[in-house]
């Protein structure tokens, strides 16, 4: 079997390697090839989205059913809305929301391209179903904390953990067009109950609930963006920063940004590491500190 030369274009080397894996049985007929995101990471190339690809059986031979736990062609499982939603979530979790297509879901489930439309009207409806199922995974304390602050902290951290598990959640619609999803409303109810009984007017309660929600979403949006950037450039965050070192040094040396330069030089040799978890916690603590006089002062601000 032909092997691509080391100096061959990346796409030829990728094709040759996938062919080798198929020929040697590492990828069996009916099995999905590596995701586009995994290919981009493994071969250090830019990401191209596909709708999902499976290995075909050799000519004259039928593909054997894949009975492994994941959804696959020939598994014999009945197609349901629940299976469609779960397959879609797996694609979005692995490759990002931009990679999600109805055809790709069908391919993952090993069914005809139009079959999912018998259960879901289209991609937009599917994304809403995915979001509702995802919010149903929120894990709250078995006993709700009695103190308002502890309850808000628990809710915000649960939502942050959910976005860590499903980064695409931060991409699914503007704040000005709220999603009327049962499980998302259950989250809002949890947060609002922490503010209830403190003399706050309804408008203030909802404003604070939305403010905390946007803090979580505002930090979480960078989880998916970083994954997309890593896939499209083939560089980790640190590797990309290394390519910017000269330009950054020139900006500092210009003298046009004295305070920023002072802060940057204060980082020392190790530089500054941006950790989203740490940023989330800092923002949450700061916001709750700022809310304490308002909540415990009987709703003094009634804008």
From TrEMBL:
Residues 101-120 bind DNA. SUPFAM superfamilies: Homeodomain-like, Tetracyclin repressor-like, C-terminal domain, Winged helix' DNA-binding domain. Gene3D superfamilies: Homeodomain-like, Tetracycline Repressor, domain 2, Winged helix-like DNA-binding domain superfamily/Winged helix DNA-binding domain. Keywords: DNA-binding, Transcription, Transcription regulation. Residues 78-138 form the HTH tetR-type domain. Pfam families: GntR, TetR_C_1. InterPro entries: Homeodomain-like_sf, HTH-type_TetR-like_transc_reg, HTH_TetR, Repressor_TetR_C, Tet_transcr_reg_TetR-rel_C_sf, Tscrpt_reg_HTH_GntR, WH-like_DNA-bd_sf, WH_DNA-bd_sf. It comes from the Bacteria. This is GntR family transcriptional regulator.
